[in-house]
Amino acid sequence: MRIACLLPRKDMVERAWSVLMQNDVDWKNLGLTIDYGPKLYALEWIEKMKKETPRPDIIMARGLHATLIKLHCAIPLVEIRLTAQEMGLLIVQALKRTDKPHPRIGVVGYKNQYCNMDQFDEIFGIELHSYLVQDDISSIDALYERARQAVREQMDVIIGGDVAQEVAEQGSIPSLYIQSTGDSFWEAFLSAKRLAYAIEQEQLNSSRLQTLLDNAFSTVVCMDTLGRVTLINHVAGMQLGWKPAAVQGRLLSELVPDLNMDTLTPVLTEGKTVFSLYIDIGPRSMVANVSPIQTDSGIAGAVLSAQPVKLVEEMGSVVRQHQESRYSFSAAPQDIGEPSAAIRQAASQCRQFASSEFPVLIYSQPGNLQLRFAQLIHRSSRREQGRFVCADCAELPENEQIQALFGAPDDNGGLIRAANGGTLYLENVQALSLPAQHRLLSALKYHAFMDTHYQQEQLSVRIVVSAQDTLPALVEAGRFDSELYYSLNTLSISVPPLRERTEDIPYWADQFLAHYRERYQRYVTLTAGGKKQLMSYQWQGNVIQLRAFCQRLILIARHRTIDEVDIRRLYERMYPAPMAEAVQPVEKTAYAGSEAELIARLLSQYDGSRSRVASALGISTTTLWRKIKKYGLKDE
Length: 636
Hints:
It is built from 30 helices and 23 strands. It is of the alpha/beta class.
C-alpha cells in the first residue's frame, strides 16, 4: 500500500516529516512520499504519479491542489482540513494585524478545507465572513471571484491560500496564509491509513471471491439487479470463449437468449431461485441454476452457475441413485493410497476395527480422506454386502436432522432405516443438534430407534462418524452430548492432515494429474522440481485442495511440462498470502464454560471470522449468526 502527499510549501513538508517522526511512523513500509509545489504544479505532479510503478493507492492534498487532483485523477484522495485549534491560532494572528476592536475577517478557500467556524464570532469577538466555494469544475474561477468579493467588501484581514493572498495583495488588504501546525496533516494521515486498510480488505475480499470462483468447476456468471454481467470466472471464459472485458456490463439476456428477462425477473426482484434450466450458450448445451444475491438491504443481483449437459449426463448414474435414495450410495472401492506410515497405520486400524460392531470415530480435518476410511471399514466388515449410507450433518438444517436420520412410518426415508444391515457414515457429526444427538445415542444403546411418530423399530446398523479434533472442546462446552461422545469414541482413528505427511503429496498429485490429463485430453507432465514445490506448501484444505489445484494446473498449462515456477505462480494466484496462512487448531482445554463462552473465545481466536468459527463448531454460518445474536456477542 503506497501513500503520496502533495503540499503547497516546503516548510509544510518539513513540518509533516517532523510529525511523522514524533509519532514513530514506519513511513517506508507505507511507501509514503511527500512533495510540494505551487498551485498549478498539481497538474504536472498528477501526470508523474500516473506514470510511477507502482502507482500510489491513496493521495493526500489540500485546497486547490486537492481540487485539481480530483478533476484529473481517479486515485482515492484524502483532503487535509484545518483543525479548530489551527484555525483559532490564525484568528489570533489576524487580530494582531489590525487595531480595530471587532475586526471583519474574511476566510477564502474551499468548504472542505476548513473546520466548522460557527462560534468563532462569539469566541474571538470578531465579525467572520466566509467566502468558500465547492470543489467542482468551475471552482478555480469561483475562488478568484470570492477572493475579489472579500476585497470589495473591505475585510480588515483575509485568511486563505495562494489565491487569497494574491488577490488581497492587489487590493492592499492584509492577509494570512493558512499555515498548519501539523495537526491537520496528522489527522489526514490517520484517515489515509484507515482508508488504506479498507482498500486492502476490499482487495483481500476480492481475491478471496475470485479464488472461490476460480476453484468452482462450473461456469459462474454474476449479474447486477438489472441483469448486467459484473463478473465471470475462468471456467466461463474457457467453456464459452467469453472475455471479461467483452461481456462485463452487457445484459445476460443478450448473451444468452434462452435466459430472457421473464426468467430472470423473479430472481432479481422476488428473490426466487430457478433450478435446472436447459439453455444453449453458443455451441454448448448447458444445465443452469440462477440464484439471487441476498443482502441485509435486499437483493443485490444474482449468480448463474452452469455445467455442460454432457458432464451432467456423465453424472447421471449418481443422480438416478440419489433419486432412489436421497442419502445412500454404493460403497464402491476407492483407493486410499498408503505411501506414508501414518496412513498405513490408520488403514490398518480400519481393518482391525472392521471386525467389531462398535461405533468408530474418525478424527480428521475437512477434505482429508475420511469418507474413504469409512468405506474401508465397511468393505472390510461382515456387512460389506449391505448398503453403505452416508450424509454430511453440516449440510442438514437443524430442524430437519431428526427427520433425515429417523424418517417417519408413512415414508421410506430415514438414513438409519436405509442403512439397516449395513453401515451408516455421518460426516461432521459435531453439527448434529442436541435432540438429534439424543436420538442417535438411544439407537446406539438399544439397537433400536424411534421415528418422528415415536414408533419403535429394531435395527442392525454399524455407525461410523467423523469429526474435527474440536469435538472434545464441544463436549466440555455442552455443545455435544458427553454420553454420545464416549459411546462413539470407543474405537477412534486419527487421520493426520496432509501437511504432516508430505510424502503423500506426490502420490496424490500423480493420481489427480493422471485423472485430469485423461479427462481434458491435455497430456502434460510434472517435473521433479514441480513435485518438490508442491511438497513445500501447507495444503490447509488437504487432499480436496490439492485435487482442485491439480485440475486447475492441467486446465491452464501452457507447456507440456509443468515446473516449480508454474506451480508457484498458480498457487500465489489461487491462494493469496492471508488465505494460505495456517489455521490454528482450537485449544481444547480453553473451553470449559458455556456455549456462549466457547463461541466468544473462538471469535477472538479467529479474529471475528464467522466462516472459520462455524467450521470449528461444525455448524453453518447462518446458525452461527443466530447464536451470536442470541447471546448478544460481538464478532469484531
